[in-house]
């Protein structure tokens, strides 16, 4: 899989720009089929203006290890300094639209994965664009419980560490319970011995990607 750097600049109601890395799966250039798209949202410490620092972080670190079979187009945008993913919502959705229009992406198989700050971003983006995503995977985060009904038609697999002292486990369990009350398709994995940093444990699990492959709009 080859990782490339790019920048998106578009006019919506205002001009939005976002730097991102894109990783194309093995066989992408040889095969004409459409691929699922995973957008990965990073945590707070990786905000900035040097997107290359994400090339061996999170999902791309898992890719670089070479032990996973990831038949997806993968996009990793960077959130600017002093910003949050809910403030970059238009940029991320514009990025998804651009990738869907210009790459062999199956619009029925668009997925969001996010850790910590990125996990909050995953909840937020899915709540505001529930028709866009087939599945979301929030890690170490919580969402807007009052808007949980908007997520009832999206497949969700959430992850959290029981010993998380940065984002209390209750934030995740309350969100999951709220979705369950609306008969949503949600599952939660709790690591009993882990704290906030659960990225490697979660993203190196091939079962997660096999599950994603089963999810479609």
From TrEMBL:
<dbReference type="Pfam" id="PF01738">
    <property type="entry name" value="DLH"/>
</dbReference>
<dbReference type="InterPro" id="IPR050955">
    <property type="entry name" value="Plant_Biomass_Hydrol_Est"/>
</dbReference>
<dbReference type="InterPro" id="IPR029058">
    <property type="entry name" value="AB_hydrolase_fold"/>
</dbReference>
<protein>
    <recommendedName>
        <fullName>Dienelactone hydrolase domain-containing protein</fullName>
    </recommendedName>
</protein>
<feature type="domain" description="Dienelactone hydrolase">
    <location>
        <begin position="91"/>
        <end position="198"/>
    </location>
</feature>
<keyword id="KW-0732">Signal</keyword>
<dbReference type="InterPro" id="IPR002925">
    <property type="entry name" value="Dienelactn_hydro"/>
</dbReference>
């Amino acid at each position: 899989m080859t990782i490339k750097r790019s920048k998106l600049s578009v006019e919506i109601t205002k001009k939005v720009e976002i730097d991102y890395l894109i990783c194309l799966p093995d066989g992408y250039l040889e095969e004409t089929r459409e691929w699922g798209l995973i957008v990965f949202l990073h945590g707070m410490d990786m905000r900035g203006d040097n997107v290359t620092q994400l090339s061996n972080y999170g999902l791309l670190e898992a890719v670089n290890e070479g032990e996973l079979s990831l038949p997806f187009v993968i996009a990793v945008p960077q959130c600017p300094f002093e910003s949050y993913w809910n403030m970059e919502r238009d940029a991320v959705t514009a990025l998804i639209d651009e990738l869907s229009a210009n790459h062999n992406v199956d619009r029925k198989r668009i997925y969001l994965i996010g850790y910590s700050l990125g996990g909050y971003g995953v909840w937020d983006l899915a709540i505001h664009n529930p028709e866009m995503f087939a599945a979301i995977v929030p890690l170490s985060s919580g969402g807007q419980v009052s808007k949980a009904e908007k997520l009832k038609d999206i497949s969700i697999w959430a992850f959290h560490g029981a010993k998380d002292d940065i984002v209390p486990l209750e934030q995740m369990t309350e969100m999951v319970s709220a979705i369950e009350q609306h008969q949503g398709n949600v599952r939660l994995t709790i690591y009993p011995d882990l704290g906030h940093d659960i990225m490697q444990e979660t993203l190196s699990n091939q079962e997660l990607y096999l599950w994603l492959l089963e999810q479609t709009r």
